UniProtKB/TrEMBL annotation:
Subcellular locations according to the entry: Cell membrane; Membrane
Identification of the protein by name: Proton-conducting transporter membrane subunit
Main location group: membrane
Residues covered by the NADH:quinone oxidoreductase/Mrp antiporter transmembrane domain: 2-89
A GO cellular component entry from the record: plasma membrane
Record keywords, A-Z: Cell membrane, Membrane, Transmembrane, Transmembrane helix
TM spans (from-to): 20-39, 46-66
Recorded topology in the membrane: Multi-pass membrane protein
InterPro entries per UniProt: CPA3_Na-H_Antiporter_D, ND/Mrp_TM
Family: Belongs to the CPA3 antiporters (TC 2.A.63) subunit D family.
Gene source species: Alkalihalophilus pseudofirmus
Amino acid sequence: TIFRMFTLIFYHEPQITHQVIGIFGAVTMVLGAIGAVAFSDIKKILTYNVIVGAGFIIAGLASFTADGITGSVFYFVHDIMVKALIFLLGG
């Protein structure tokens, strides 16, 4: 839904809206990585890794280019499959 919202509704002022979501994506990546480094439990590390992945997806959306959005969608599909398998191994 965030892809539809930012590509169909908030496309009028991309220099404002997409810059803000890009900053949120960068902050999400950094804080997720810091959270992952802070723990030694594999389950918590994997959980924070999901947060980092969400930041990557949001950063691709913030680029507001066809390649960025396509890359975010492909990364999202790949991330779903790989993280599910990693959680099965880590659990």
